[in-house]
Amino acid sequence: MTDLKKRFNNILQDIEKNVTNKQDLDYIKTQVYNISLLFLDELDKLAEINLNRLNTMADREKELEAKIESMEKIIDKLEKEVYSSDEDSDFEIVCPYCNAEFIEDFSNGIKYEVRCPECDNLIELDWNEEELEDDIESSLNSEENKNNSEYNDDEEDM
What we know:
This protein is mostly helical and 158 residues long.
């Protein structure tokens, strides 16, 4: 800024040296000041616009961080449901053939078939994986649509 002030003063001194008529000199100085003030006003306006944009971006960033945190919570819940601990690896099963109830250990992973210890029939297990995938997909799509809607609303406000 000091360099700008120095240059401005050099220009005024040059004008004073080259304009001999006092009335003309005062007029020129006044007009130079007026032009300088116009430029400074425009610079102030631009600075204010940029500051408002930065504030808007900072606000949007906070909103996005909150949404990311919300999504992380959803993902954590899904992970807990999908990757349950060893405590949850025992399931009670009722045989559809003899109605015998027994506990099956799934700590080694998901099984799609088990044998009934009473009647020795093979029982197919339906984990409703497609239903779970559909639930996850619809939940994510719902959240994405909500986020897109909010983003579009924000863009219209700008």
